[in-house]
Design a protein that fits this description.
This protein is about 40% helix and about 10% strand. With about 220 residues, it is α/β, with parallel strands linked by helices. It folds into two domains: about 140 residues, HAD superfamily/HAD-like (Rossmann fold), CATH 3.40.50; about 70 residues, Orthogonal Bundle (DNA polymerase, domain 1). Strands 3-2-1-4-5-6 form a six-stranded parallel beta sheet, with helices on both faces. Helix 5 links the parallel strand 2 and strand 3. The structure holds 1,6-di-O-phosphono-beta-D-glucopyranose and magnesium ion. The site of 1,6-di-O-phosphono-beta-D-glucopyranose (B16) has 20 residues, from helix 1 and helix 2.
Length: about 220
């Protein structure tokens, strides 16, 4: 089968470009403590890539608290979680960018490949600025109004912006839900993290830094396989 040349790579942010995932979970843990829940570390995997509101719903459901809070109270909980999260990321700088990110972006640019951000996070534009990488992005998906991962909407939004087909796009994700979203969009998925956790990704690497440039080059050219 001949695959298309890749014209767009859509990156997730949290856990792919920088280590903000731990801050999301830390602020969920702190919030849960307020209603006497000790959020199990194993639950983090169910929150990665999932929107703020959907994450709260998952936590409340898991601990049998879904009927405990009114919609108004839930809104306040979301504000509180975000305030804490923003405090935790307020000291982040370009030094917090994962190794290999700039090299990877530079290589993609040299090949004429566009770069988009497909993050579920409303804090993403702020993090792009503090990490000094905004200029690398040809497009940043606005997740507001789009369905949360594992729905493919975020990835499809980027693809449609450039008027491309799924076979011309690659998605890069650290979350189970995120890889599912890329697969549902019909794009090639690169998982970043644990192969057992991200067993449904087309390719999996432990970090951006460990993706060989030769591998990327072959994938972009769309060689026959
Ligand atoms: P915010 P990603 C996701 O970002 C995080 O993985 C997830 O934990 C978080 O709940 C979600 O963003 C929403 O973030 O509260 O900042 O809008 O992994 O898709 O880059
Ligand atoms: Mg992520």
């Amino acid at each position: 089968m001949q695959s298309s040349r890749v014209n767009l790579v859509i990156f997730d942010l949290d856990g792919v470009l920088t280590e903000t995932s731990k801050f999301h979970f830390e602020s969920w843990k702190a919030l849960a403590k307020k209603f006497d829940v000790d959020l199990d570390d194993k639950f983090e995997v169910h929150l990665k890539g999932v929107s703020r509101q959907a994450s709260l719903e998952r936590i409340l459901k898991e601990y049998g608290l879904d009927s405990k809070f009114s919609e108004e109270e839930k809104k306040l909980l979301l504000v509180e979680k975000n305030r804490h999260y923003q405090q935790l990321i307020s000291h982040m700088t370009k030094d917090d960018l994962f190794n290999g990110v700039i090299d990877c972006f530079t290589f993609l640019k040299s090949q004429g490949v566009r770069i988009a951000l497909g993050s579920a996070s409303k804090n993403a534009p702020r993090l792009l600025k503090t990490h000094e990488i905004s200029d690398y992005f040809d497009y940043v998906v606005d997740p507001r109004g789009l369905k949360s991962k594992p729905s493919p909407d975020i990835f499809l939004d980027a693809m449609k912006h450039f008027n491309l087909n799924p076979s011309e796009c690659i998605g890069v994700e650290d979350a189970y839900a995120g890889v599912s979203a890329i697969n549902q969009a019909g794009m090639t998925s690169i998982g970043i993290g644990n192969k057992e956790e991200l067993h449904h990704s087309d390719y999996c690497f432990s970090s951006i830094d460990s993706i060989p440039i030769t591998f990327l080059k072959t994938l972009i050219k769309g060689d026959s396989s």
